[in-house]
Amino acid sequence: MTSPQSAPHDLPWSQAEWLNPPQDVATDGTDLLVTARSGSDFWRTTSYGFVRDDGHALLTGLPPGSAVEVGFRADFAELYDQAGALVRVDASTWIKAGLEMSDGHPQLGAVVTRGTSDWSLAPVPDWAGREVTVRVSRSGDAVTVRARREQEPWRMVRLAWLDPAAEARAGLFCCSPERGGLTVRFTRLATGPADTSLH
């Protein structure tokens, strides 16, 4: 997989808006430290039978032909600790992608929700404690999700359908479904043009 060809530009944290403000937000230099509320999550129905829409997300516009990148450090410890990028149209139409603790290791994955949620994961134990970037790119009827550890090559995570006419926002997210006290260090929020090709 080649790297996306478009160069994003950093967006000040203040130029994005919170969906479900977290328990605490602080800055450390240029980084944003976000502490999730206990029990926070994004999920709709499938297998578990519940709906959660109280995860924390700092969002900006994602019009067709644009992309958003989110950088963070993967310092997770407990089951279902998670962070990454969220694309959101409304409470029943969204995509979250990034890292999540499951089976004792960080997992790279995505949840695509159109009425009900699905979930896919792949273990990335060597990403623990490292800087991770998740990129969501919107073009035509698709959102392409890629991720990488530090400056390594991009890895394809998901290709998901999204209505070309939908008004969507995107940005960073974090959740802590099983505990309180998760603090995620976000290092970057960037926007730019969509990737020029899938491969």
Automatic annotation (TrEMBL):
InterPro entries: ConA-like_dom_sf, DUF1349, UCP022704. It holds the Pfam family DUF1349. PANTHER family: REGULATION OF ENOLASE PROTEIN 1. This is DUF1349 domain-containing protein. It comes from Actinacidiphila reveromycinica.
